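During the reporting period the student researcher (J.K.) took over the structure-prediction task from the postdoctoral fellow and processed the backlog of single-chain submissions. One of the processed entries is reproduced below for the supervisory committee.
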Amino acid sequence: MENKNNKSEIPDNLLVRCSSLHNLMTKGTGKSPKDKYLDAVKSLYEKEEKYRSTANKETKTAMKLVDTIAELRATIKALKPYRNDISLSETCRTWIKKIAQEAFYGYKTQVNSKYCDKGNMVEDDSIELLNSVLFTDYKKNVDRKQAHHADGVDWLTGECDIYSASDRLIRDIKSSWSIETFPAFQEDAEKKIKGAGYDWQMRGYMILWNASKAIIDVCLVDTPPELLSDYDNWELHEVEHIAPEKRITSVVVERSESIEVEIMERYNAANKFYKECINQLKSK
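J.K. obtained the following structure tokens:
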């Protein structure tokens, strides 16, 4: 049954927002076919090396190695046709099904929170803070870009906060809710960035802008009073008295060609699953 309520055409392909790229790249709990294949190849090499270095090849240990080598060769032969198959994690599959459902029924899930509201409301303040510390004149980027797949379809979209064309640098602003949630230590900032998937978001931006590096600047600025209540400790939100350089922690993400190959491989598998989801909904 075709959807009669959708006001626009259902997208034929999965379009990934940079802010959601981490969902695509989540790993499953088990090993992928590629991991199993590479493990078997590595183990075979090690066993063959060990057998070659064995002086007396008539011992039980040597004969057992021969059997193990034969078993590994059989395993590799069986795994080889599937070595490039990508296993999507349950998290990734759930995310794709959500996108397919939104596309089919023509709605968008809205995520609202005071933390997101602050990030949007103080973005200019955080950019101003960054400029005051770095003696720069960065301006908020307003351009949204899309990347094209090999077959011509758009597969990735995003709008970075700052792009410096002179040094091919992406800078992205993350504004902390309060002093308590601000990662003052570098180690904590790096853990927080990875935990939230912001590093993958930067990799998406680097693809879109062909940037060589991205920096995430976690900033601490005053919280707008309208977001606070009498139950909040306002002292944790009024931070202008703190030196500007003490209110920024930056995390660098270097561009990687090998990681981008992995992203594309996972996208191809995800797009295939997305099409299957859309077809399932059409056939209901």
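The committee noted the following: The longest helix spans residues 257-282.
J.K. will present the remaining backlog at the next meeting.
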